[in-house]
Write a structure and sequence with these properties.
The protein has a six-stranded parallel sheet with strand order 2-1-3-4-5-6, with helices on both faces. The longest helix has 21 residues. It has six helices and six strands. By secondary structure, the chain is α/β, with parallel strands linked by helices. The radius of gyration is 17 Å and the shape is globular. The two termini are 33 Å apart. The protein has a single domain, classed as 3-Layer(aba) Sandwich (Rossmann fold), CATH 3.40.50.720. Helix 2 packs parallel to helix 3.
Length: 231
């Protein structure tokens, strides 16, 4: 059993495709998921420390108890090509915002708390240009930021262990989202399990890393990719 009933879990990007699946699953477990998202009814921009500070204080006033979990799910992937400012914005959302959230949330977390950073197979291996349409090249900034999460996760895992807070990285494969049929077919040929992921494939990993069953796991990378990076 996960033992998450009544525990506050912050999900950055909680209104996105994956974030909303995490929110729904956590709610079904009796947890109290809180979405920090620019698309939420009360928008929160996790690149802005003022927004994080205000949202953190709102949780303290509304619930009056410490935070148990933080899932850093918010991320962007800019269109291909060297768009002005795209590199800087990707780093700001995919890395700096995570640092800000961890720095500002961890002091309010309970002993035994858990932080999960959401990575990508493209932080482990290069995007394969052969499976994309001609002229499409997955941007360097996305792969760079996702690769950097390995170091960021281990750095925080060592330092937050003194507070009995665990920090782990989930590396995820591609999620089906009505992509072109040719791309889906080409991608699935690279996956030993033969298909793209659905958001529901990842909620179990979140439940495990937030729960008591993973109490001795920190600084680790758990890969959920259908075997994509196995060959």
């Amino acid at each position: 059993m996960s033992g998450l009933k009544g525990k506050i879990i912050i999900v950055t990007g909680g209104h996105g495709q994956l974030g909303s699946a995490f929110m729904k699953h956590l709610n079904s477990l009796g947890a109290i998921p809180v979405s920090w998202d620019v698309n939420a009814p009360n928008p929160i921009d996790v690149t802005q420390v003022e927004d994080i500070s205000h949202a953190r204080e709102t949780i303290a006033k509304e619930y009056g108890k410490p935070i148990h979990g933080l899932i850093n799910c918010a991320a962007i992937d800019t269109p291909p090509g060297r768009k002005p400012g795209a590199w800087e914005r990707t780093i700001r959302v995919n890395l700096t915002a995570i640092r800000n959230c961890v720095d500002m949330v961890s002091p309010r977390m309970t002993e035994g708390g858990s932080i999960i950073n959401i990575g990508s197979i493209y932080g482990e291996v290069s995007p394969d240009p052969r499976i994309y349409p001609d002229g499409f090249d997955k941007p360097l900034a996305y792969s760079t930021t996702k690769a950097a999460l390995t170091g960021l996760t281990k750095w925080y895992a060592v330092r937050l262990a003194q507070q009995k807070i665990r920090v782990n990285l989930m590396v995820l494969g591609g999620v089906f989202n009505r992509q072109p049929k040719a791309f889906v077919k080409a991608y699935e040929c690279k996956v030993p399990l033969g298909r793209m992921a659905h958001p529901s494939d990842y909620v179990g990993g979140v439940e495990f890393l937030l729960g008591e069953a993973s109490r001795y796991i920190t600084g680790s990378t758990i890969t959920l990719d259908g075997g994509y990076t196995a060959w």
